Amino acid sequence: MARLLALPLTAWAGQVLAPDLPPQQVEVLVNGSRPEELLAKADRLGPLLQNESKLGEFGYTKHPKKELRWDDLRSIIKGRKCSTEKADEQCGELVCRKGLCSFCTRDSECPSLHRCVESSNGRACRAMERKAWESAWQDRSECLGKSGQQLGRGIAPRFLAMFSKNFPVGLVFIVLVEFCERTCYYTFAGTQKTWLQEQGYSNSQSSSINLTWAEVCYVCCFFGGWLASTRVGIFRTIAGLSLTYALGTYLSAFAALPQVESTGLYLLGTFGLVALGSGGIKPNVCTMGANQFDPADPEAEQNRASFFLYFYLTINLGSALSHAFLSSWATSGVPGIGVDIEHGYFFAWMIAASLMLMAFLLFVGGKSSYRKAGKEDVEEEPVVQLFIQTLRQGSGSVWGKLAIFGWVLIPVFIVVSIVNAFVESPALKAGAVAMAVACIGSLVIAHLKNPSWLPESDVRRCLDCVPLLLVGNLFFGILQSTISSVFQSQACQMDTRQDHTDFSFEGFQYSGDFFRLANPVTIVIGTPLLDRVVYPFVRKLTGKEVGIGFKVILGFGFAIGAQLVAASIEFARKSSPVLAVASHCAPMVDGEHVHMSGLNSFYMLAPYAMVGFGEIMVNPVLQHLAYEGAPASMKSLLQAFNLFAMGALPNGVASVISQALKSQVPNDLNQGNLPLVYFINSAIGVVGIFAFFVVLRYSPTRAGEASAKVAKSDAIDTEL
């Protein structure tokens, strides 16, 4: 292999394309490996190339007529210049043949990169071992001079070179942006409730405001998705809104200073700038990451499926950092470095703000490494206008009117749910619940009937996925929302002391949000475990691929089980003695924090972890479904809708539920009935399972095809 890489370029080009070499040498050149290495992998790669006549089957039929430049050789090997005048002039009758399978029939792909193998699903295409010359080109730490210098004099760090073998280098910067953004987001999500309680808000209202803030963040996804589809573009959208995000976080940190403590400034920073920045970049970071994979690469679909899975894992790494350190530092300070309790929130939020500023700088600094969008990626049409125009065209039918009614209700419900979080009104609560039911029901029913009232178009194909995304995200999101509301309230009224012999108020206590750490840790550990062990085992046991239905049922099952486990812990907590220690993160009663019960708060790790297992199975599937279900012109918009359905809608509904059940969740949980809330959530989850499968059964063709594609991609990902 080393000798091959050291060959001068002219000799190398001639040998690579020569059909008359000894069989063994052809194997080395075509496969980019030594024969003994190939023999060890023969069971996976299929039959080896055994004689020179086979070389023609891989697309090369003649010697080049003269010396090739490296760029020309690389392009020919990748099968992209087989029909150009320049390639014909240099290579004679060099032909890029097609026809091995569906993956090998695209104009931009060459059969020399593939093997067709028989599988349980018929003929499938599997990428061969990457050739030495292709690796050398893609590895940006290596370069090849015109006179045939040896490879390996690059300047990129080795870890970037290793990363680029499967994922493009630009993904490093994109994923780091997501990591910093999620750390910042979850710092606010875990500390906002306790800070508002410090300002005099009740247990249920602080939970409702926290959920409403999350709703506003996800509503802003529409703005981000729209802005990226305009001339501003996806890069400038992410860059500008990342900076906005950082500025909002700094403003909120300033508002938390003891000498300031301004609720108005805080809400301006979080509900204004942070929500706009967070929601604006969410759909675009995901889409830009997925677009880094060249559609001409035969491994693109497979690597993209892995990207969505591990992108979700990155989200939870940021979440873990927030829950493990920043949330507890906010409520108890960091005495070891001189940060007292009074400055805890300021300190934690300044760290989050600085991370977000770093994300902005990293993203802009990595601009040169991003793949420029091709025609298949660029959204050239005004997608929002097309969306509205399509709905108007179908307004003459009953289903069209019902769909328009549902879409119009969305902004109305958002406004009502936000007002409901700040204003106490039974009529408002009832109206919000009625609007939620009418809105969701109208959209699901109308878009299940898309073929009967919408003409075939990109908008129609995009809308075909709406019912599945709505139902799956809504019901699971309601269960998931408990980790930032009632789970946290329950943990804060348990024994959160680090030192159980310390009965002073100044002693360090874990924040209730600290135990949410079990959620991302479970996801970080469980993702590769499910992907590499559990799913392959189930496939081997049943003889079938692990489908969407299995993942959704199991995911909902874990989330419902978490509600029941939390209810049993609450029964045990209420029967435990109340300690003479006020909890730092509990609400205020009569001028002081509610005292904690004697039950160890670490028991709450169990329900948090169970929700995490559920998330692994449900959320990546729905996120991938949104990407695969969207035409190229509407990927950002459908990702924005998916994030709205994943965050805004369930958080808005959960906020309304929180206010409706406030009598069961008073400031002192010993005076309420928290298990009843968990039982209601469990019932909602059971309804959600049935609703999802009904919608899946009657989904339009496009959604069904996307579901099948997601299942197939996930199956390939678990297999390789």
Automatic annotation (TrEMBL):
<feature type="transmembrane region" description="Helical">
    <location>
        <begin position="643"/>
        <end position="661"/>
    </location>
</feature>
<feature type="transmembrane region" description="Helical">
    <location>
        <begin position="402"/>
        <end position="422"/>
    </location>
</feature>
<feature type="transmembrane region" description="Helical">
    <location>
        <begin position="346"/>
        <end position="365"/>
    </location>
</feature>
<feature type="transmembrane region" description="Helical">
    <location>
        <begin position="235"/>
        <end position="257"/>
    </location>
</feature>
<dbReference type="Pfam" id="PF00854">
    <property type="entry name" value="PTR2"/>
</dbReference>
<keyword id="KW-1133">Transmembrane helix</keyword>
<keyword id="KW-0732">Signal</keyword>
<feature type="transmembrane region" description="Helical">
    <location>
        <begin position="307"/>
        <end position="326"/>
    </location>
</feature>
<feature type="transmembrane region" description="Helical">
    <location>
        <begin position="548"/>
        <end position="569"/>
    </location>
</feature>
<dbReference type="GO" id="GO:0016020">
    <property type="term" value="C:membrane"/>
</dbReference>
<feature type="signal peptide">
    <location>
        <begin position="1"/>
        <end position="18"/>
    </location>
</feature>
<comment type="similarity">
    <text>Belongs to the major facilitator superfamily. Proton-dependent oligopeptide transporter (POT/PTR) (TC 2.A.17) family.</text>
</comment>
<feature type="transmembrane region" description="Helical">
    <location>
        <begin position="676"/>
        <end position="696"/>
    </location>
</feature>
<dbReference type="InterPro" id="IPR036259">
    <property type="entry name" value="MFS_trans_sf"/>
</dbReference>
<protein>
    <submittedName>
        <fullName>Uncharacterized protein</fullName>
    </submittedName>
</protein>
<keyword id="KW-0812">Transmembrane</keyword>
<feature type="transmembrane region" description="Helical">
    <location>
        <begin position="263"/>
        <end position="281"/>
    </location>
</feature>
<feature type="transmembrane region" description="Helical">
    <location>
        <begin position="602"/>
        <end position="622"/>
    </location>
</feature>
<keyword id="KW-0472">Membrane</keyword>
<dbReference type="InterPro" id="IPR000109">
    <property type="entry name" value="POT_fam"/>
</dbReference>
<dbReference type="GO" id="GO:0022857">
    <property type="term" value="F:transmembrane transporter activity"/>
</dbReference>
